[in-house]
Amino acid sequence: MEEPREESEPLLSRARGGSGRPAGSAGSRGVRVGPGAASRQDLCFDQAAVFIEDAIQYRSINHRMDARSMWLYRLYYSNTCQWMLSLTIFLILLLAFIETPSSLTSTADVRFRSAPWDPPCGLTESVEALCLLVFVADVSVKSYLVGWAQFRKNPWLLAYLAVLVVSFADWIVSLSLLCQEPLRIRRLFRPFFLMQNSSMMKKTLKCIRSSLPEMASVVLLLALHLCVFTMLGMLLFTGEKQDDGQDRERLTYFRNLPEALTSLLVLLTTANNPDVMTPAYSKNRAYAFFFIVFTLIGSLFLMNLLTAIIYNQFRGYLMKSFQTSLFRRRLGARAAYEVLSSMSRRGEAHPRGVGVDPQDFLQVLQRVQLDSHQKPVIMEKVRSYGGDLLSAEEFQKLFNEFDKRVIKERPPRPEYRSPFLRSAQFLFSHRYFDYLGNLIALGNLVSISVFLVFDADVLPGDRDDFVLGILNCVFILYYVLELLLKAFALGLRGYLSYSSNVFDGLLTVVLLVLEISTLAVYRFPHPGWKPEMLGLLSLWDMARLVNMFIVFRFLRIIPSMKLMALVASTILDLIKNMRAFGGILVVVYYVFAILGISLFRGVVVAPGNGSLAPDNSSAPCGSFEQLEYWANNFDDFAAALITLWNVMVVNNWQVFLDAYRRFSGPWSKMYFVLWWLVSSVIWVNLFLALILENFLHKWDRRAHLQSLAGDPDTCCQVTVDLLFRDILEEPTEEELLERLSCHPHLRLCR
């Protein structure tokens, strides 16, 4: 395909210094003559705007830069298109709950579950086809924007195309077999659409892949540890009599090699401790040393060593991620700088030197998609340079402003002429008035808790809610009065500008509506007053339930407590950085749930219908049947997710191993052990490593936050990226220019 003329024309004339302002450059005003120069200027402005948007969003700049491609690029990354793509991914993942086997039943218990809804053939397939067509358009646009040469080198785009081909082929097979095929291969590939759309998930997978050799070495040690102690256990527990403790140990836990291996594997997670030790320990206390030594080496040494290895691999994971993001930002900013400064080099020499004219940059900012509250701050910062050209260093420093969240200015408070009203305004807008409200809310919670304790042993029909009803009316009246007084002091717009006030106000309005409805239905509280239940909950019970949300008022005291504020901010930052890890967990859950449905669907049968245990009374104590674990099955997608969650927690997971061994065969243990390794060992340790990394860096640099933020009354708030900015390594000018010179769709002439 022939490159457009605008794209093939050299835009970047030569390498230039980053911090100084060498003389002898052309003035930017010299190019603004003639229609050709105007069109080139407009193209440069668009290219600079796209580069700036790439820098803000930490995106790669290696895409086509002609006018038509930039229009398509900005359309693709618009909020509407990205929202539609996210919705499509959500829909195709959601299909697993609806398509056969459907999860649309009230319970997953095989004893009480009704026949699930079976969607007609072609219904979910039609929705799936629409989703796949959206993904075809997605990969087509991405392939066009990066170019064919880059497409062939991108493994994710190649895998994207392969997954779509396999999915469409399997979809055609489904329709040709009237949706009666035993296995839908394409369901296993659906999580790929989620992964390929997240750069952070791709980075996380890369880090996991780099950690696999070290983790494999510890897993090998664990396997060797299990094998050695399994052999020792089978040699030790060789009882001679039926009533002998050794024999009971052998028959229960060391009957054969697979049983012994399973028993010790479960002991590695301490889920069956001390049950596995009790029969032999009851016979001779010396046997306890076998299990203690096994647990010390396996659980306390090797498992924690695995945690240390994973943490060591992911130590600096956030820093590496921020380092990559910083390089992309600097590269995008430098590309925008080169494009804008190249305009001046086409004209006559300008006495002010080489750089970007602030007026040009302001025009570019008008085209950049920025937050409406952030753009004025950036533009004001640019105007502060006056008429001086911006050097590369100054241009880069402007991008630090994009890291700051703009704090909206509060609307002005009402002005009252009366001294009494001004005094009341000062009183009701003071923070001590908030403290009083929190104290009243605490009294409300204490009263509810006290009456819950007193009424715990009283039957619902014998309770007297007279005192509690009066107290509830008093508290709600105070909340209404507090709302009105704050609205008077701050003004309606000022009151609504605080998210805490919005929460309090909505809660107060809901409580007021429920209280008025309660009084209208049950009349005013009186001795012996007990509202009757109408449906699931009475209006009175609903009011008490909603009243419990008052507890969230106390979250606002967290910023005033430094240590608690540090922990809370760490949790919030962790949630932001956990999106990639959470996405990986969703992918793993989805794949294992689909595999579980294919392997174990229908193997759990209700008692009396061919189940291995006819009823709970005849089942051994602690077994799947006796514990009534009937809802833990793989008969539909939702049930499979809950079953996998219960196994991941590893509490009583030996029950699942034993039950599915009896229901479907000994090979089923491989599925559950693999799930335990992936979820409970790898992912949980990964999560722990991220918590440690985040908290330790936040703890070490808690004092640095104030210095970065500056004056607390300023209009900006520092984000997580800027918090770590001082310990990141700034890319050199040579690295940036070298990377720019390799841009596949721009030519940097030196």
From TrEMBL:
An example Gene Ontology molecular-function term:
voltage-gated calcium channel activity
Query: Does the entry feature the keyword S-adenosyl-L-methionine, yes or no?
Result: no
Q: Where in the sequence does UniProt note compositional bias of the Low complexity kind?
A: 10-30
Fetch the Pfam families from UniProt: Ion_trans
The record places domain Ion transport at 85-314, 430-695
Write out the GO biological process terms: endosome to lysosome transport of low-density lipoprotein particle; intracellular calcium ion homeostasis; intracellular pH reduction; lysosome organization; negative regulation of developmental pigmentation; receptor-mediated endocytosis of virus by host cell; regulation of autophagy; regulation of exocytosis
Bilayer topology reads: Multi-pass membrane protein
Q: What InterPro entries does the entry give?
A: Ion_trans_dom, TPC2, Volt_channel_dom_sf
Q: Where in the cell is it found?
A: Late endosome membrane; Lysosome membrane; Melanosome membrane
This molecule's function is given as:
(Microbial infection) During Ebola virus (EBOV) infection, controls the movement of endosomes containing virus particles and is required by EBOV to escape from the endosomal network into the cell cytoplasm.
- To which protein family does this belong? Belongs to the calcium channel alpha-1 subunit (TC 1.A.1.11) family. Two pore calcium channel subfamily.
Q: How does it assemble?
A: Homodimer. Interacts with LRRK2. Interacts with HAX1. Interacts with MTOR; the interaction is required for TPCN2 ATP sensitivity. Found in a complex with LSM12, TPCN1 and TPCN2. Interacts with LSM12.
Name-wise, this protein is Two pore channel protein 2
Originating organism: Panthera leo
